[in-house]
DNA sequence: TTGTGTGGTTTATAATAGTAACCTATAGCG
DNA sequence: CGCTATAGGTTACTATTATAAACCACACAA
C-alpha cells in the first residue's frame, strides 16, 4: 500500500508498489461497502433476524437487494442462513465468526458518521 | 439504529426505530465506501498527491473515476484541490481535517482485510 | 373469504461504473 | 522542426448495479 512515484533521469515516471488491481482497502470495501451490506451486517449484530424483519428494519432497501446481499454474505461465510421451520416457512439469518469480525469497523464507522452530522 | 420489531395482540408487525432511509452506517458508507473513494483517501494520507500520480497508484481505476471521486470529496470538504502551478499546469490533492478523520476507519479496514486473506 | 403473515422471484427502468480515445498545453531530444 | 512524453482532465459509448413495484405459493386467523 505504500505507493511511491519515482522519476528517473529522463523525467519518466513509474510507480513502485502500485495497487495493480484492488488493494486491501478496495477489497475490504467490496466485502463490506456495497450498498446495504454494512447495514445488513450491523443489524444482525445482536441476534438472528428473519428475512422480513430485516426488510422492515432497512426501510429503503428492496427485498431483492436484501436477498442478493444475504446470498453474497452467505457465500462468503459471513452470514448463516437457517431454516427454522418448514410448513409455515421461517428463516433466520445470523452472523458467523467472520461476519462478526467486521463489526468493530462498522461500529467505528457509525460513530464517525454520527459525529459529523452527515446530512 | 436499535431497530426492534414488535408484534401486537393481533399478530401485526411493526418496527420501532427502523432505518427509514439510510441510517448512519449507510450514510457513512456512501461517503467512504463508493468504489475507489476509500482507496483515494487512503493514498492521500501522507502528503499532497498530484492527479496523474494518484491515477498511477490506483492502477485499475480510470481517470474519469478518479476525477469524479475527487470532485465529490472536494465538494464534501474532505479533500482540498490546489493549483500549484499554472502554465505547466500542476495540481495537488490533499486531505482536509475532515478527510483525515476518516483515516482510522480505513486503517482498521485495511488491517481486517489483510488479516482475512481475502482473495 | 378477505386480510395478514412468511420468504422470496420477476420484470422493467434508472443510476453508476468502466473503457478507451481524445484534447490543450508544455518540455526535452535529435 | 517533428517526435515523444508529461500534465490534467473531457467525451462518447458500453456494461454493471440498484430500485421500484408486482407478483407467487402457502399458512393462519377472524
Relevant terms:
DNA-binding, Arc Repressor Mutant, subunit A, homodimer, 19% strand, 6 helices, alpha+beta, 119 residues, two-stranded antiparallel sheet, 5 strands, 3-stranded antiparallel beta sheet
Q: CATH topology of the domain at 47-118 in chain A, what is it called? A: Arc Repressor Mutant, subunit A
Low-confidence stretches of chain A: 8-12
The chain-level mean pLDDT of chain A equals 84
Class of secondary structure makeup of chain A:
alpha+beta
As laid out across the biggest beta sheet of chain A, the strand order is: 3-5-4
Largest sheet of chain A: 3 strands, antiparallel
Question: So what's the oligomer here?
Answer: homodimer
Structure summarized in a few sentences:
With 119 residues, the first copy, chain A, is α+β, with helices and mostly antiparallel strands.
